[in-house]
């Protein structure tokens, strides 16, 4: 069974002094200067970066990164059953845009490694 070490904290500072991670998840704060670059740079070759965004500004940043580095963009929508008068109806939650990308395995290449996500742009 593979070992899993979860490190929580503000990125990219939480990564300082650690071995290069296999994966980094960013759940918010995408527009903070240096956040995505710091997380990307910290990953080992073939490491995976997954980022969530819910604002237009954050989504724009993910769209620009996707255009430059590839990977996959996915919009996730969830609805919950809630009272609607005397009946029950679906109430939508805020949609989440997810960008997932893998760092190239070969040093010196700018091309990301396909991550195997269905529908992902394999570059």
Automatic annotation (TrEMBL):
Q: Which GO terms describe its biological process?
A: cobalamin biosynthetic process; methylation
The record's listing under InterPro entries reads: Cobalamin_biosynth_MTase (IPR050714), SAM-dependent_MTases_sf (IPR029063)
Q: Would the keyword Transferase turn up in this protein's UniProt record?
A: yes
Q: Which UniProt keywords apply?
A: Cobalamin biosynthesis, Methyltransferase, S-adenosyl-L-methionine, Transferase
Region (Disordered), start-end ranges:
104-123
> Which GO terms label this protein's molecular function in UniProt?
precorrin-6Y C5,15-methyltransferase (decarboxylating) activity
Q: In which pathway does it act?
A: Cofactor biosynthesis; adenosylcobalamin biosynthesis
Q: Which residues are the signal sequence here?
A: none
What Enzyme Commission number(s) does the record list for this chain?
2.1.1.132
Protein name (record)? Precorrin-6Y C(5,15)-methyltransferase (Decarboxylating)
Q: Which organism is it from?
A: Nostocoides japonicum T1-X7
């Amino acid at each position: 069974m593979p070992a899993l070490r979860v490190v929580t904290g503000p990125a990219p500072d939480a990564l300082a002094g650690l071995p290069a991670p296999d994966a980094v998840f960013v759940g918010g704060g995408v527009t903070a200067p240096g956040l995505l670059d710091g997380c990307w740079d910290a990953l080992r070759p073939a490491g995976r970066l997954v980022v969530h965004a819910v604002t237009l500004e954050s989504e724009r940043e993910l769209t620009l990164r996707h255009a430059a580095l590839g990977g996959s963009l996915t919009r996730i929508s969830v609805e919950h059953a809630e009272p609607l008068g005397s009946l029950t109806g679906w109430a939508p939650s805020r949609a989440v845009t997810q960008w997932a990308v893998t760092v190239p395995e070969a040093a010196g290449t700018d091309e990301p490694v396909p991550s195997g996500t269905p529908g992902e742009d394999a570059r």
